[in-house]
Please model this.
Amino acid sequence: MSEAIGPYRTAWCGEVLADQVDNEVKVAGWVHRRRDHGGLIFIDLRDRSGIVQLVFNPDSSGEAFALGHELRPEDVLSVGGGVVRRAEDTVNPELPTGEFEVQVTSAKRLAKAETPPFQIEGFSGEVGEDTRLRYRYLDLRREQMQKALELRHRVVAAMREYLGGEGFLDIETPVLTRSTPEGARDFLVPSRQQPGSFYALPQSPQLFKQLLMISGYERYFQIARCFRDEATRADRQAEFTQLDIEMSFVGVDDVIAVNERLLAHVFERAGGPEIAGKMERMGYDEAMGRFGTDRPDLRFGLELVDLGDALRETEFKVFRSVLDGGGAIRGLNAGRREMPRSELDGLISRAQELGAKGLVWAFREGDGWRSPTAKFLSEAELADLNQRLGAEEGDLLLLVADKVPVANAVLGQLRLDLAERFDLIDENENRLVWIVDWPLMEWNEGEKRWDALHHPFTAPAGDFDPSDPGAARAQAYDVVWNGQELGGGSIRIHDAEMQEAVFGALGIDAETARDRFGFLLEALRYGAPPHGGIAYGVDRIVQRLFGAETIRDVIAFPKTASGFDLLTGAPAPVDELQMRELGIGIHKSKLAGH
Ligand code: ASP
Model:
């Protein structure tokens, strides 16, 4: 830590070390632990730098000794005393300051603490997360949380340091703005001055960073807060932090190169895996084909295989109807496994939960299968399937017959489940990969329209034929670390006509486009450079680097999975007057109890 200043301390607790022996010091902090030992009172005093032992002695501590008796955990204290070396047999090897202690000569309690709802010292995992979040200011006192936030600081500092060094300017963009194009639901803020009008909180600074390129800023970054009002899916926060980057006069390879250097720098500063030279790249189609996902975890095999060709002539009704309906039969070889029937049934339920109609399981036995499905397939088909799956005696095979996206999603997830079940992942291995060459759009069957896979400002690769949007590829890239997306971005459309054509293909009519994104379309007409960028989920990166279970553990004041801030009680009703000023009423049907 830096120099200790202020009237309460001359040294940091965690830095009471050899060079201070025989010196008088003043330290300040919280009572971490208190022990009474036959007349002597030992206090572990804690500040952000660490812990030091204080000794209150009836002979030498004078008036301070009485206070020593009264102290309770989490009381705030400033003490003065001499630093001494502890007797050899009382050295605490667990503490960096464990060879020393402060013999207290003066002490002042600066604040009393009530008994905390959970122990800060000796915290056990049994404390429920709701309690931790309710008393977050106490939870944050714990070493674990402090380390997480220190790491977060290091990560963000390294980002700023690297990008600043490469000529990127840190520029803030508005939080009260209009809807941005990430496709989630907006958080809205009613305007008092314009009743009936609303700001939207940004889902990302996407449009502003593009405008900054049009304004000639060349290289921009921001540690930006983003807001997406989504049904909180697994471990997400509606309010989260992105490292947002944009640059001009570049193509895909340039953005990737800068970002490989950025990640190498950040990981080096924050204890992540070493990135030496270029990272691996994989096409989207290959990722989907081999792993069923655009976020493949490459640390283990169990790759997906397409089995349609082996079953072209099949008379097994279930397979036949899927193939005739344009679906796929895909499978994976889980290796030589023992699995009781109950667990196989569990896999079937899991597949159904994930959206498949069913799951075929089989163990290779001789030239055929031991499987309830074996009797529906010919010998030749079984042999062909075994061959395509590389199945050896005793291997467990899993097959899904369904629409392609369903088969991929289900097998992609089962692959991950199995890796965990059979402990196939070497936790020391790290695989970073760029997923490139994305489709520009995907068909939304529910809404019967094309959706942008990334966002509507992503530039197509090569020519764009609006009559065949499904064929268009995108100049987009995502970076994936051990199966988790860290960030993603694209080269953007910098031509107003192309932007309008893409909007058109996405079913965004000219009027809607003008209404929502008119300012961008207009700006594109005043000389827009080719540009592109990326955004990273900062919370996720820190979580991964720290090895935390949830991103909530690396955010100082997170919300619960359902969006509540248990500390402040947000969201909360506001008073009648505020509502009146905003010209807002709440519909009865939306109020609790209706
Ligand atoms: N704005 C995008 C997002 O939030 C990232 C980008 O395209 O740069 O996903």
User: Anything to note?
Assistant: The mean pLDDT is 94. The chain has three domains: 13-111, 146-283+431-576, 300-421. Residues 13-111 form a domain with the OB fold (Dihydrolipoamide Acetyltransferase, E2P) fold (CATH 2.40.50.140). The CA atoms of residues 61 and 105 lie 4 Å apart.
